[in-house]
Amino acid sequence: MGKQTALAICLAVFAAASMAALPTFDEVDTNGDGKITLKEASTHEGLAAAFDKADVDRDGLLSKAEYQKLTSKS
């Protein structure tokens, strides 16, 4: 197995593990306002890394629908 292939496999496994470990929406939405801020997401490494991509409407917040779409891909 080549070094690039091994690296790609390691990265894929790490990414899958990070996404699989995501908490529930309510666990992240610590103030209970129904939206997740980047600050709230920053305490969860996998979520913080995926925040910008998950924020489809670019309002700087994750709605429950955006979060569910993100977590359903894991």
Protein architecture, described:
The chain is mostly helical. The chain has one domain (3-72): Recoverin, domain 1. It has five helices and two strands, in the order ααβααβα. The protein has helices spanning 3-20, 25-28, 38-41, 45-54, 64-72; strands at 36-37, 61-62. A two-stranded antiparallel ribbon has the order 1-2. The two termini are 26 Å apart.
Please describe the structure with a list of short key phrases separated by commas or semicolons.
74 residues; mainly alpha; Recoverin, domain 1; two-stranded antiparallel ribbon; elongated
SSE pattern, N- to C-terminal: HHEHHEH
Q: Work out the count of structural domains.
A: 1
- The chain-level mean pLDDT equals 83
Query: For this structure, what is the CATH class?
Result: Mainly Alpha
Architecture, according to CATH? Orthogonal Bundle
The gist of it:
The chain has helices spanning 3-20, 25-28, 38-41, 45-54, 64-72, and strands at residues 36-37, 61-62. It has 74 residues and is mostly helical. The protein has one domain: EF-hand (Recoverin, domain 1, Orthogonal Bundle).
